[in-house]
Amino acid sequence: MTSAFASPGAAGPLATFVVLGGGHDDPTLALLAGLLPTPGAPVEILTTASSHDPARTFAAYARGFARLGCQLVQHLEVDEHHPADAPATLARLRAAALVFVTGGDQERLTQYLLGTEFLKVLRRRCQAEAGFVLAGTSAGASALGGQMLVEGRGWRSLLAGGIEVVPGLGVLPDLLIDQHFIERARYPRLLHAVLAHPALLGVGLSEETGLVFRPGRPPEVFGTEVVVLVDGRQLRSRHYENLPAGQPVGGQGFRVSVLVAGDAVE
């Protein structure tokens, strides 16, 4: 499979990225804590995707990071009551060693971050700052791609009109990431999404499973289940354009990989 990712030595982001498919995330927090330069490095928990009790979400992650020895874990609040471009919020974003984006509703992330100085700062840091770490779980992982799936269930996902794909945050612009992938039977909707956006690499993350992107190295799978890659960049045909709602979509030439812990994306 031809990689959508920068090959070793190629120009690319200097930050490290970690994306998880959701579920139990204590092992991922341990991985993230191990990437910090010192125990006192600032960790910011971005709970924008959580519309129900974000303070509780933050507190749970703060306890998890504290158990791992992290000494400075803060709640980076961006929502209807906390503007993304508030000076204090931007200052903390610029100082953070790690930004961890929690799960929930990924459309809240694009609602409150697209078009902001906050997102510009985040993208600049990811591109230019070695040692900076950006991580996301579940919706927080999906929102990082160039496009993101927000609707699509079961076999109906392979019918015209059966999915909805909207712009993501574009931090990982060449990817279209789906989460809870195996557990929620989301393979049909990722196939459809890649048909709609064949220039993007589809990434299906199972729970407790993810990818770590280190600068200058191929991404590597971690966790207990699988990562599915759907590559449509060499499709020979697409039964997709101008179909009436309810008609099946199709394509020939998908390339699919199923990866487990320790596998590198080549």
Brief write-up:
The chain has 266 residues and is an alpha/beta fold. It has helices at residues 26-35, 54-67, 87-95, 106-113, 117-128, 139-142, 187-196; strands spanning 16-20, 43-46, 73-76, 98-101, 133-137, 145-151, 164-167, 172-178, 201-205, 209-213, 220-223, 227-231, 237-239, 250-252, 255-259.
Describe the structure in your own words.
It is a single chain. This protein has 266 residues and is an alpha/beta fold. The chain has a single domain, classed as Rossmann fold (3-Layer(aba) Sandwich). The chain has helices spanning 26-35, 54-67, 87-95, 106-113, 117-128, 139-142, 187-196, and strands spanning 16-20, 43-46, 73-76, 98-101, 133-137, 145-151, 164-167, 172-178, 201-205, 209-213, 220-223, 227-231, 237-239, 250-252, 255-259. Helix 3 packs parallel to helix 5 (117-128). The chain is globular.
Output the keywords.
266 residues; alpha/beta; Rossmann fold; seven-stranded mixed beta sheet; 7 helices; 26% strand; globular
| Strand count | 15
Give helix % range. Answer: 25-40%
Assembly type of the chains comes to single chain
Main beta sheet: 7 strands, mixed
**H and E order:** EHEHEHEHHEHEEEHEEEEEEE
CATH fold category name = Rossmann fold
SS element count, helices: 7
User: What is the percentage of strand-forming residues?
Assistant: 25-35%
Task: Show the helix and strand layout.
Layout: E1 16-20, H1 26-35, E2 43-46, H2 54-67, E3 73-76, H3 87-95, E4 98-101, H4 106-113, H5 117-128, E5 133-137, H6 139-142, E6 145-151, E7 164-167, E8 172-178, H7 187-196, E9 201-205, E10 209-213, E11 220-223, E12 227-231, E13 237-239, E14 250-252, E15 255-259
Parallel strand pairs: 1-5, 2-3, 2-4, 4-5, 6-8, 8-9
Antiparallel strand pairs: 1-10, 6-7, 9-12, 10-11, 12-15, 13-14
